Structure formats: C-alpha cells, structure tokens
C-alpha cells in the first residue's frame, strides 16, 4: 500500500511541490547538445540489445512479468458522442510501432504536395525560409534526429526534417522551398485546408482525411536518411519560378543521387520525371478538391520514400549514424539498385492507382510495394535501411493499415505517432525520429504563407472575411497539432514564439496567453490514479509534449529535467496493456482532469454553499427584481450544483440587515433583524446557512414570501457594506459563493459611496475620471473572502449611477463575476427582465468549482508578469480562485527572459485545482505547445490577431485605470502603428505610399478601431460611467470568444437566408450567411440585418424591406405595423421564419448567457444603439476605418 | 467540544469522510491537528489497538477501529471520554450500515464526504448538554472507557521510525548484553550474597 511521506503534504490548497522558482534544471540538461549526446549513448546500446526482438515479443515479456493491476481507472466519457471520441483517442490496442510512426509521413506528404501547387508564390517569402535553411542547424538537427528520442528529438528534428522532407517531396512537381508551402493552397483551394472545414482542426483533421495511407516503415528510414542530405540541395531551387520545375526536379534528383550508383541514378531520374509529369497532369493545376488532398498525401509519401533512398554526400553526421545502424541490419536484408528501381516502379504504379481511385477509396494494399525491397545490396547504406522494416516491420504493419482504412481509427494513428518513437527507440531509432520529426515540417494546415501575404490595407476594400475568423493553428507537425490544446481553452497571441525578447521587441506585438480554463467541455478524460505523474523539479504535470527517453524515464518539457516513470504509469487502463506509458491518456490528451489525492487537500472538500444577499430597499422593491430572482431560484433549486451537503442561506438588507432562520423543524422561516450595522453579528450562526434538502420546504416558503415582504417599505437607504461583512462571517467557516443583488449606491455603514459621476462629462473627449474605486473597503472585503474560499458575485440592477468602479472590487479580487443590468425594471424594461431571468438560469445551474487555485507554468526562459481576470494573485504564478465558473476567462502577459535558442518548442501548462460541487478534488490541466522561431517574418506569420486584440484590450483597461483613458487609447493606436511599421521595415520593397500589413495582421487596425469605439474606451459619445466600467470589467473577465463579439460584432443579412452552405445541428438546418462589414454602406433599405454583439442581438429592418420577410418572419403585415419594442420572433410556419429562428438559436446556443433580441426599425429612435456598432463608419467623434488607416499611415511615416 | 471528525480506511489511510471543522471563527488552528490525524491514519494497521485515546496538548484524539475503518474524533481534553466513544460508536453503526460494503472498493479520497451531514447532526446531539441526556447509550454504560489505552500522539506518530531504528540497536545490544551477561549475573549473584 502506498505510504505517503509527510513531505508530500501540501500547503493549504496549494499544489504540492516546489515553487516555480525552483525550476532550475540540472546543468547537464541545460544544453540540448549535451543532453543528446548523453542520450545517444543510451540509444546506441538500444539496437544492440533489441534489434532482434520483434516488438510484440517485447510486450509479451512485460505482460508475462508479475503485474498487479493498479486501482487506477479512466472514466469513460458518458455520452455516445464522447464514447466515439474517446475511442478515437484511446481505442487502439497495442499498435504496430512502425505503422504509427509512419502516418505522419503521409500527412506530411500531403502537405508538401499541396505546397507544390503554389510554389510559384514562393519567391516573396523566400526570405522567411532562411531560418530553416541554415546548414549548421541542419546537421545538428539531423544528428539529433537519428538518435531516436521520440518527442524532444521530434521537436528538434521537426525543423530539420521539414527541410529535408520538403525537398524530397517536391520532386514530382517542383521546389517547394519553404516550410509554409502548404499555405499557398488556401487561396486556390480552400477545401484543402482542414481548418476551414473544421474550425477545431486539432481534433477533426483526422476525420477530414479518412484514409491516409501510412507508408511502409521503410520509407521512414529512407526519409530519415535523406534528411541531412537534402537540406542543402533542397533550398537552392526554392526561389525558382515554377515553370522550371522539371528542370529543377532533375537537378534535385541529380544532386540527391550523387551518392548513388550511376545506373540507379539514371533510372531513378527518369522515373522521377515521369512521375512528375503525371503528377502535374493529374493535379498540379487542377481544382484542388479534397480528393486531391488525399491523393496528394499518398503521393507525397511515396515520393518521400524515393527521394530518401538516395543519400547525399553532404549528410555527414546522420550518415555516420545510419551507417552504424545499417551495419547492424546489413545481414538481414538489403536492396540493390535494381530492387530500388523496382520499388520506384511499384510506387509509380501505385501512384497511378491512387490517382485513378477517388480520395475516399481505401488505401492501396501496401503489400506489393515492400516486396521488391528486400533484395540484398550490402554496399549501399540505404537499402539496408529500407530492408530493415520489411524484415521485421512488415507483418506488424498490417493492423495499422487496417486502422488507416477504417475512418474511425484514422484519427488515432497520427496521435500516437509521436510517441511511437519511444517504443521503437531501441529497435529502429531512425523511425521514431522520423515520425516525430516529419511532422515538424509541416503539415501546416494553417495558412502560414497566406498569413504573410502582404495586404495593402488602404486598397483592400473588403478586409473582413465573409466567414468567421478562426484561431490560427500553430505551425507544428501534425501529431503535435492533433495533441495540442484546443484554442477555445488556450490561445497565445503569437503562435510562433520569438526566440528572444529582442526579437519580440522588434515585432512590437504583445505576447500573452488567453485562457478559458473551466470551459464547459463535451469530452474530458478524467483520470483516477494513485500517483499523478509530475516533474520532480518544476511540478509540471505529465503531458503529451514530454519526451520519453526510454520506457522508464521521461523528460519534462518545461524544465527539461529527466524524471522516472512510476510503475503505475506503465499500465494503460484503457488498453489494459502494460509497458506503454506514452499511450496513457495523460500523454494522449492536452486537456485532462485528474482526481486529486488527499495530498491536494488541506481540509476535507467543502460542500457547495450558496448565500444570497439581497437589496430590499425601496429602490429594489420598485425595480421588482425579487420576483424574478425568487421565481428563478424556485425553479432551479433542485438544479443547484451540489451534493446532499449543499447549503443555502439568505440575507436581505436595507438600512438594517435581516437574517432568516431556516433550521429544519421550524414551521416557517424566522426573520431576524440586526440593526446594529456598525458591529454586525450573526444572531444564530448555526441555522442561517442550512442544508438545502433538509430545509427545502422552509426555503420554498421564504422564496414565495420574499417578493411581497417589503412591498410597502419606505426604507431608501442601503447598508451594503455591513451586509457584506455579515455574509463574510456567515461564509468563513466553509467558503462558497455569495451572490449580491444591489440596486443603488450603498449609503450606510462601512463602504458607503457617493455619486462621482458628472452627467455632463459623459460625452467628454477629455479626461474620464473615476474609473478606479473610491474606497478600498470592497477590495479588502474581497481579499478577506478570498482567504476564506468565498467568492462574491455582484448583480447590479440600477437605473442610476451606482459606482460600479468601487463595487466591482468585491468580485474582482474574490474571483467572482459581475453582471450589470442598467435601467432594470421588471415591467418597464421587459427585455432586461428577460435577460436577468435567463442569466440567472445559467448562473444558478452552471458548473462551479470551489476553493480553487490555478497555476500557469511555461517553458524555462519564458516568464509571466501580469495576469488579467478576476482572482487574487497569491504568489508569482499562483492565482487564488475562491470559485471558478465555466464563463470566466483569464489573460496573462509573457516576457522572454532567457533566449530560447536551444529549444524549438515551448509549452504552457495551466493547472486548475478545484473542489467540484460533488466534493471531489480535481485538477484540470491544459497544455499548449508552440514552435519557437528566430525570424521576424515567422513571428508575424504566427500572429493570432484576435488573441492579440483581446490581450491589448485587457492591458488598455489596466492603463485606463492606472493612468488615463486617453493614455490607453494612445497605447492602442500605437500598438497598430508600431507593429505595422515594424513589419514594414521587414519587407524590402516597402512603399511608403501604402499601408502594408501581413495577412495575419490585416484585421488588426480594424479591431483596434473597434476597441476605440467600444464602450470601455470610446470618447466623445455619451457613455455612462457605470456602462463604461462594466465594459471594462467584461473585457477583463470574458473569455476570448465572447470578448471578440463585444469588440467587433458580427453582422449578417438575414432577409435572404438560403440553405447554401448551411450546417446541420441536431437535425436542424442552420443557414450560414456571410459576414458583412460593420458599415452602413452594407445596409440596404431593402434588407433585414442581424447584428450579434455577444450579449445583445439587433435585427435591423430596412424601410424598404420586402413585405414577404416582414410577414413570414416578424408576423406583421407590413413595415409600418412592426411594433417599436419587439424582442421575440414569432414561431411562424414558414421557411424563412424557420431559417431565421434556427440561425438565431444556433448563435444563442454558442454562448452561456442568452442575449437579448431587439428588433430595430429603421428610423426608430432605438436605431442609434444599432448604428453605434457600425464601427467602420465615421462618427462625430471618431474616425471611419479608412480615416483611421490614413491616420496610422501618417503616424508610420512620421 | 467536538472539533474534528474523520473516518478513514485502515488499510491505506485513505480518508473516507470528514466533518468540516466549524471552528475557524474562534481562531483555533486545526490545521496541525488535521495533518496529525492524516499521519495517524497512515500509521494504523491491523495490529493497532482498536480503541485508543491519544493526547495532543490541550486536545485529545479518540479513535475506534471497526471492520477496517477508523473513526477518529478530536475533542478538547476536558470532553468526557465516555461521550466521545459513544459518539464514535454512533458514527460507526450508521456509517457501516450506509457505506460499509463500499469501503474496500473506493479509491478517491473522501468518497463518502456526504456522510458529513450525519456527522454534523450527531455531533450536535453530543455537544448539546440537554440533548445529551436523551442518549441511551451514554446512560447504559455499555463500555468501560477507563480501560482504553492512552498514549501521546507525538509518540505514536514517531513510533514507526523509532521502532525501525531501534530494531538494529536492539540486536546489537543483545549481542553485547549476552556476552556480558555471565559477568553481570555473577556480579549480581555476588552482590546478592554480599
């Protein structure tokens, strides 16, 4: 049994283990080269021991050993959907290693072949490539690669291999010079990009390509061999125009064949030419449909294979390594030139086969292909390699192929491949290397080249794409991409991390993370195991991006420490297999949840405790929110998250504080009034927070009575501060959630506030004051609450100024959330009332985590310095979250403290430790992996403009409060000016007359302009102080998806919805109208438009809108009869009504808080609300988009 | 005053249920006691005495072990021992009935945390002196609490290491003593005579 040592006992609620400051890595691991050298020793032993052992037998050995089944188990996801997903991820039995490894090759091939299409465009980008092409890097990489350390090597190899692989792929058509080659496909053939089809390509790509044909293992060896050799040759032609392709190809071939026997050469090149010709015929210029993609993939593979079979004299380091291997393998099987020719031939035939068959057809039987290969040819090093896989590997391949042909499994393969290297290490180090490294190159389904296409902003009239903007996919290999964290949970402003702070400074772009850590997930692997595997020095949780040095050791991807793999981890509960630590769900999923052991608890998990603190002053009763709240509570009482221990309590206040004794056994609730607000005490501490189930009847009685209890009150004062103090006392023994409903300025007792708003200054263009709190009472109280694991959520429902800037502090520092309903009135403002009702439903029933802490770790060299969101920072990287809710977003600013030259990947890990409402202590871990780049162009290529704008918005809020609003506005404008001018300086033919942005940044000026016109930052337009402050609060605490809609609403034309391009959701057809830019120019009088601003929808009806639409959708006979206040669309049995409603419902479902709908008639007074969101247009106080661009251009030229 | 109640599986010290301490308002830091309790659970095994009182300064731990489950309570030293054990017996009978069968199969800490509700109620009965009179078990002197072993918590927690450490010394000493014993006996005999 496990006896935990005392040292494991953690500090209260903090993660056990050393702080991040202790992340120092043992010196030996600091340098990768050293590291690799060290490991190479290990590796070289490997083959000696293992070569003759087929992998299976290896496994058997392990199985046969004594093995106690650990108690760990992984809970399978419950719904059918989840099942399927889970299966995809885990469902595989013990895989044939070769096979797994090989898949990336195929994908890669696809990518690169795709890139052929567009190589013509490569010239402008050639400069970006140089990072990859430096020969020094190559040799280093390739040597590393051949050592066979799966993932780290993979990382390193990525770049190296990509270089190599590209050229090899490019044989058939042409020099696909740059790693971004694939990107070119997107303009011509959007369908090729999986991203476009599946926004969450990370998971979906596999499905998108149902039948990637895994190349036989031999190919991988070839590829590997070729790595170093091709580096040099490959790059030279990259800049050449596409028309020379044949010539180039020949050239390439010749170069590559230098090391080969002459006869082989000739036949080979001949073949290549043929192939090339055919390939071009078939799909070079063609329409690039998906079919192309698939064939391309396969084709690419084969080509890779061929290419790699030719060694180059230049491949020094790797060659040596290979030779060693070859020697070992030599006796087993070798391939002569003839045989190679045969192979090529076969491939060629196969290729034709593939071309003729459709993409969906099963992959051709691999069997014939390998056959010719194993012909003895001792002299040539490659052949032996080729032969090796056939000798052993081929039988093992079979299941893999089957996998590949089954769509269900197709997704599985690639995901495993990174780690497959691990297994193979001892046997075929090369293969493993390759599989992981191959990926590096490429497969970017993300538009790298596209993202660097210079866009002349002033001339591009329609800058806004018609389809929603998705997060760019980091330029990683396919395996890593698949494993990577979903951008919905974790995004970085730069998907290519600059190597040094200097480079980051040059780029003038903000670097930071945007997190949505507790997002509602449909699929989440939950892991119960006795030991949660973590790095011993930096406490990083084991994740998909660690590398396994051997069966028993893994290397931390954050601090590079080598850790032991615990015995328990050797068993995979999903496959019920032993000895495959790399297949554990922790290593297969970048988002997982652990059931924590008691080491992670300093006290028993707390129950769910909910306290409602309600304003019942005259103002509150007049607004009438109590009815809605009590009704909503009554409806959702049984749905409040919690177990049988759930407790609930109520406190009301006006000038006094009222407690309610709800102790089980009472005949009716007892109201206890405490009028001493200067020294608040709890009248009966035991019976105010009561068990929800035992006192349910009393609670219902109270909720039914509350709305009418104060109807005749004349009390106008509000003693909010003392009520909060009482709430704190009530909550402190357990912790939990306090929900405060406030309708006016607190006017009595501690924390009283005065009006600070001067209504005449609302539209001032000068100074906006009072954005910060007037008193530190609320902040102090929040910190006290946070210390007792209590979060305070604020619902402010007021028609007058209530100093939200001060009140918000109670939630900001206690990790609460803030809701604001300006001019709330349950009768006069039905849309707000409806919104409150819907928000409450979500609020009361959504998931909640208690006594939480969140720690964010990042690869050594990076550091976090500023956090945004609602929380209290307990130590440098530990956020204290008394509550965590699924709608909370966070942002972190990063800086690069040490240069990242010795790593090609960086990782970020968020760990959220919380107590679920069922009393389980859980840890949700997200890990994001991003590549490191050394050129400015690559940095620009990887900008995630939405993430950047959200981070900037957060920074601007801080600046507004700490300095001034105008400072913040200037900083926003400067962010655009600086980054665009910095970019301008990188392009050689920079014209000062044009405003050029890389494609990745083309929306940057637009979004910044939108921010400047957002309520939080706008000037010159009348904005109530509370509205502004609330907008700022939202910016700080909303996750990216919702924040983007707040900043830049989506506009759709909805009077002509068609089913074209519609998607199907739950048997409903949801039309997908194109996005319109936010300009009145797009509004035609004949149309009807829907604007999605996140928390509110506007439907604008033009004066000349067709009566058909008005009748069919709005249910009114004509334009004139549309009521002024319309907040619902009637359910009419017409096609257009159905389409419209289905579209709106679909939009609604995508967000947690249901937005209010306003139907706005043209010429109605409400239309100003609508028109203020048309941010591309000029207003009295602000630039139009075009003017803004000119302004930026002017600033740049200064 | 009952301050802390914990229930754990003896086999591996896995905590099964606990009652949230409600005493933070009075400023008492129960953290130390809680970690002592956790340590104690890890020390306990089948050979441990099934009923024991452990002194911890101004506080006292009482525990009983029944069917592989340890029921532990932390009280003020002045709290009657009889009551404490009766309280533990009450918890035992209810817990065993509700969850007894599931105990060997669970792996998650605090799997039966919802038992807290019952603990709290029972605790109230025992703390409230008026309600206490109604407790039949107290009045009928079911057990002789005076015979229950008393020890010090610190000693118990350190015993594990001490024992393993002293084991070697013992063997060494044994040899030493055995070699010396004839002389000693002789001396002793002589002194006896003299």
From TrEMBL, chain A:
List, for all copies, the residue spans of the domain called Sec23/Sec24 helical: 944-1044
Q: Which domain of life is it from?
A: Eukaryota
Q: Name one GO biological process term.
A: COPII-coated vesicle cargo loading
- Biased composition range(s): Low complexity: 219-228, 308-317
Please tell me one Gene Ontology term that the record gives under cellular component.
Answer: endoplasmic reticulum exit site
Record GO terms (molecular function): SNARE binding; zinc ion binding
Which Pfam families does the record associate with it? Gelsolin (PF00626), Sec23_BS (PF08033), Sec23_helical (PF04815), Sec23_trunk (PF04811), zf-Sec23_Sec24 (PF04810)
Show where the Sec23/Sec24 beta-sandwich domain sits.
849-933
Q: Where is the composition biased (Pro residues)?
A: 363-381
Q: Which UniProt keywords apply?
A: Cytoplasm, Cytoplasmic vesicle, Endoplasmic reticulum, ER-Golgi transport, Membrane, Metal-binding, Protein transport, Transport, Zinc
Q: Where is the Zinc finger Sec23/Sec24-type domain?
A: 532-568
Kindly give the membrane topology term recorded for this protein: Peripheral membrane protein
**For the Gelsolin-like domain, which residue ranges apply?**
1071-1144
Q: Where is the composition biased (Acidic residues)?
A: 318-330
Give the InterPro entries listed for this entry: ADF-H/Gelsolin-like_dom_sf, Beta-sandwich_Sec23_24, Gelsolin-like_dom, Gelsolin-like_dom_sf, Sec23/24_helical_dom, Sec23/24_helical_dom_sf, Sec23/24_trunk_dom, SEC23_SEC24_subfamily
Ranges where the Sec23/Sec24 trunk domain occurs:
605-844
According to the record, the residues making up region (Disordered) are 186-236, 308-334, 359-391
List locations, semicolon-separated: Cytoplasm, Cytosol; Cytoplasmic vesicle, COPII-coated vesicle membrane; Endoplasmic reticulum membrane
> What protein family is recorded?
Belongs to the SEC23/SEC24 family. SEC24 subfamily.
Q: What is this protein called?
A: SEC24 homolog B, COPII coat complex component
What is the native source organism of this protein?
Oryctolagus cuniculus (Rabbit)
TrEMBL record, chain B:
One Gene Ontology biological process: protein transport
Q: SMART domains attached here?
A: Longin
Q: List the CDD domains hit by this protein, alphabetically.
A: Longin
Query: What residue stretches are annotated with the Longin domain?
Result: 6-119
Subcellular localization(s) per the UniProt record: Endoplasmic reticulum membrane; Golgi apparatus, cis-Golgi network membrane; Golgi apparatus, trans-Golgi network membrane; Melanosome
Pfam entry (one): Longin
Q: Does the keyword Protein transport apply?
A: yes
* Residue ranges occupied by any V-SNARE coiled-coil homology domain in the UniProt entry: 134-194
Q: PROSITE patterns, alphabetically?
A: LONGIN, V_SNARE
GO MF term (any one): SNAP receptor activity
- How does the UniProt record describe the way this protein sits in the membrane? Single-pass type IV membrane protein
Q: Which UniProt keywords apply?
A: Coiled coil, Endoplasmic reticulum, Golgi apparatus, Membrane, Protein transport, Transmembrane, Transmembrane helix, Transport
- Residues crossing the lipid bilayer are none
What GO terms fall under cellular component here?
Answer: endoplasmic reticulum membrane; Golgi apparatus; melanosome
Q: Extract the PANTHER family matched here.
A: VESICLE-TRAFFICKING PROTEIN SEC22B (PTHR45837)
Q: Give the UniProt family note.
A: Belongs to the synaptobrevin family.
Q: What does this protein do?
A: SNARE involved in targeting and fusion of ER-derived transport vesicles with the Golgi complex as well as Golgi-derived retrograde transport vesicles with the ER.
| Name by which UniProt lists this protein | SEC22 homolog B, vesicle trafficking protein
Native species of this protein? Oryctolagus cuniculus
| Phylogenetic classification of the source organism | Eukaryota, Metazoa, Chordata, Craniata, Vertebrata
